[in-house]
UniProtKB/TrEMBL annotation:
GO terms for cellular component: cytoplasm; excinuclease repair complex. SUPFAM superfamilies: C-terminal UvrC-binding domain of UvrB (SSF46600), GIY-YIG endonuclease (SSF82771), RuvA domain 2-like (SSF47781). Residues 257-467 form the UvrC family homology region profile domain. Residues 202-237 form the UVR domain. GO terms for biological process: nucleotide-excision repair; SOS response. Its main location: cytoplasm. InterPro entries: GIY-YIG_endonuc, GIY-YIG_endonuc_sf, GIY-YIG_UvrC_Cho, Hlx-hairpin-Hlx_DNA-bd_motif, RuvA_2-like, UVR_dom, UVR_dom_sf, UvrABC_protein_C. The lineage of its organism: Archaea, Methanobacteriati, Methanobacteriota, Stenosarchaea group, Halobacteria. Residues 15-94 form the GIY-YIG domain. This is UvrABC system protein C. The UvrABC repair system catalyzes the recognition and processing of DNA lesions. UvrC both incises the 5' and 3' sides of the lesion. The N-terminal half is responsible for the 3' incision and the C-terminal half is responsible for the 5' incision. Keywords: Cytoplasm, DNA damage, DNA excision, DNA repair, Excision nuclease, SOS response. Interacts with UvrB in an incision complex. One of its GO terms (molecular function) is excinuclease ABC activity.
Length: 581
């Protein structure tokens, strides 16, 4: 696209805030090259007719079309830009690879529209947002539904009903499904809700205010207080005020410390989190970004993308002040104190974050080495699987996630498995469960680059059978504990003890094992059982019994001779156990 084409396209754009996308072609499925936001779409897009840098010049030359979305506010443009970057991963943007995005509200395209919070709106739905705070948005949506009775149920639940559901009894829905409200009246309520999300706050706020005042008049003060909090959330939705989320004490309870290191087309942001004065978490995130981006631009893009569906801290300490003025304004409105300290304890924390960001030997170095060793395009996201049981009892499976060499505990999952003394069948069941959820869209995590199975050829074979049965195309390897051999579909690898890729797999394997054993012990060591009432069975004896038999059910089925074989269990105690159980 040449300069004249850019100017011609810009001349047709409004002078309002919004988001623009440069596309590699002019079709709907064209590759997105770059996503940007603007306070004035016409002025911002026109500036690309004379790009300031070589990187942007290359992007404009490759572009075949520009499309735009107008937003109500500059903050919505900021959040929508972050969502679109996450979705499309454009080549010329700073990109954080995770699955978080800011929430939207949609009214579906049905005769009786459904209202709901979503991150993946329907194609023909009327969509509002994005919004910063999902918790606040849920409060607002409940207020909207209590005021206007819009349905929130699925199409399956809505269809062919002969009586209203519980939402009708609770005052959250006017039950268009059974004709309790006419289609015309329901449509009028939908139009009122649309006016509210388009900025007419009083449509919802005024009824809540009247109800609040009436509750106070009746001295129903608890109800009045709840309505007051709801009113604050409703009134803050369009102003992005921080009043609705301010802490009671006003003190800074959580502080995130961010340090950024930029090298070529890769950047690393290290995040430390301090809660109530104690350092509680450290993590590193790798970002792809076009060469030549300043650290402040990288950090600004990281903040906008990272805090989608994550709570903002009370304060952000940063190594480089974000370049984006609108981002800084948004943080200020949300009550986040943004600081780039130059001295003192806070500066020491920022220095520590910078050291973590610049650290070599982990993160990208290990994942790149692993990808090279296995012939993969990338190995930045790994899921580790293990099973645990006691002679087939209390069988469980673990599924842990590592991203860029570090555990992502929010993405850990666990599953109770059928009780059976068959490690191969248990592993097949566990991996099949994960694969089916991924294929059916029931797992909100992105597909991993690699599956790591705790075990040897048998466990890997069981996992590969599950993958083949479901059609989930994700590479899988196994790591056996005894000799630390890596088993692949092509054979067995014996890597040096100091190989970084081996160290990464060992960490994933050990964490999957720890997580599985911990869950198994939680089930096995259930203390609220009849064993506690048996005379002569103390904590140590109970532990030995559960360790040998695996569960209370197995102890109940044991013979007297089997019970007496446990250290500390005599004939009298064995008979007492059988009687009690």
């Amino acid at each position: 696209m040449d300069a004249d084409a850019v100017r011609e396209r810009a001349s047709d754009l409004p002078t309002e805030p919004g988001v623009y996308r440069f596309l590699a072609g002019d079709s709907e499925d064209a590759t997105v090259l770059y996503v940007g936001k603007a306070v004035d779409l016409r002025d911002r897009v026109r500036s690309y007719a004379d790009p300031r840098g070589e990187r942007i010049r290359r992007m404009v030359d490759r572009a075949g079309a520009i499309d735009t979305v107008v937003t109500d506010t500059e903050t919505q443009a900021l959040l929508l830009e972050a969502n679109l970057i996450k979705r499309h991963q454009p080549r010329y943007n700073v990109r954080l690879k995770d699955d978080k995005s800011y929430p939207l509200v949609q009214l579906t395209d049905h005769p009786a529209p459904r209202i709901e919070i979503t991150r993946d709106p329907d194609e023909n739905a009327t969509v509002y947002g994005p919004f910063t705070d999902k918790g606040r948005l849920e409060t607002v949506l409940k207020a909207v539904r209590e005021t206007y009775g819009l349905r929130g149920c699925s199409d399956h639940k809505y269809a062919d009903r002969d009586r209203p559901c519980l939402d009708y009894e609770m005052g959250l829905c006017t039950a268009p499904c059974t004709g309790e409200i006419s289609e015309a009246d329901y449509r009028a309520d939908c139009e009122a809700v649309q006016r509210f999300f388009e900025g007419e706050t009083g449509v919802v706020a005024d009824p809540i205010r009247r109800e609040m005042n009436e509750a106070a008049r009746r001295e129903a003060f608890e109800r009045a207080a709840n309505l007051r909090d709801r009113l604050k959330a409703v009134e803050s939705l369009h102003t992005e005020s921080s009043d609705a989320v301010a802490t009671a004490s006003g003190e800074q309870r959580t502080v995130d410390v961010l340090g950024v290191a930029v090298e070529g087309e890769r950047a690393t942001v290290a995040r430390l989190q301090s809660a109530d004065g104690s350092l509680v978490e450290r993590e590193r995130h790798r970002l792809d970004h076009p060469e030549g981006q300043r650290a402040g631009a990288v950090l600004g893009a990281f903040v906008a993308q990272y805090y989608a569906e994550r709570d903002l801290p009370d304060a952000l300490l940063v190594s480089d002040r974000p370049d984006d003025a609108e981002l800084r304004s948004w943080l200020d409105r949300e009550g986040v104190d943004l600081r780039a300290p130059g001295a003192g304890r806070e500066a020491t924390l920022v220095d520590l974050a910078l050291k973590n960001a610049r650290r070599r030997g982990g993160g990208r170095d290990e994942t790149a080495a692993l990808a090279d060793a296995l012939g993969l395009d990338r190995a930045e996201r790994i899921e580790g699987f293990d099973v645990s049981h006691a002679q087939g009892r209390s069988a469980v499976g673990s599924d842990v996630t590592f991203v860029d060499g570090s555990p992502e505990k929010a993405a850990y999952r666990r599953k109770r498995l059928p009780d059976r003394n068959d490690d191969y069948a248990n592993m097949r069941s566990l991996v099949r469960w994960r694969a089916e959820r991924a294929i059916e869209g029931r797992d909100d995590r992105p597909d991993p680059d690699l599956l790591l199975i705790d075990g040897g050829e048998g466990q890997l074979g069981a996992a590969r059978d599950a993958l083949a049965e479901t059609g989930w195309e994700v590479p899988a390897v196994a790591l056996a504990k005894s000799e630390e051999l890596v088993v692949t579909h092509e054979g067995v690898e014996c890597w040096p003890d100091d190989a970084p890729q081996l160290h990464l797999l060992q960490r994933v394997r050990d964490e999957a094992h720890r997580f599985a054993v911990r869950y198994h012990q939680t089930l096995r060591d259930d203390v609220s059982t009849a064993l506690d009432e048996v005379p002569g069975v103390g904590p140590e004896t109970r532990k030995r019994l559960l360790g040998q038999f695996g569960s209370v059910e197995a102890i109940r089925d044991a013979t007297l001779e089997e019970l007496r074989s446990v250290e500390g269990v005599g004939e009298v105690t064995a008979e007492s156990i059988q009687t009690a159980l």
